[in-house]
Design brief:
Layout (H helix, E strand, L loop, with lengths): L5 H13 L4 H8 L3 H33 L8
Helix pairs in contact: 1-3, 2-3
């Protein structure tokens, strides 16, 4: 999956700073249709959903490399 577009990054920044917002309000602010804004929101949501999966994968990768007994007391 590719990185978010500049508009999607700005939308995310606005949502982080202001909190929840209406689609129609953001669509007017960015001069796009509500459908385009919803599509951007779907992309942002799917990218954010991947973050926990990536973290879990990296943790498992560390576990696999070190072996199941790493850190155990003998």
């Amino acid at each position: 999956m590719s990185k978010p577009s500049a508009r999607q990054e700005r939308i995310l920044a606005i949502l982080r700073s202001r909190g929840p917002a209406r689609v129609a309000e953001l669509a007017r602010e960015f001069d796009v249709s509500p459908i385009t804004l919803r599509r951007d929101a779907e992309v942002i949501g799917s990218l954010l959903a991947l973050v926990p999966l990536v973290v879990a994968f990296l943790m498992l990768q560390r576990y696999w490399r070190s072996g199941p007994t790493a850190g155990s007391v003998e």
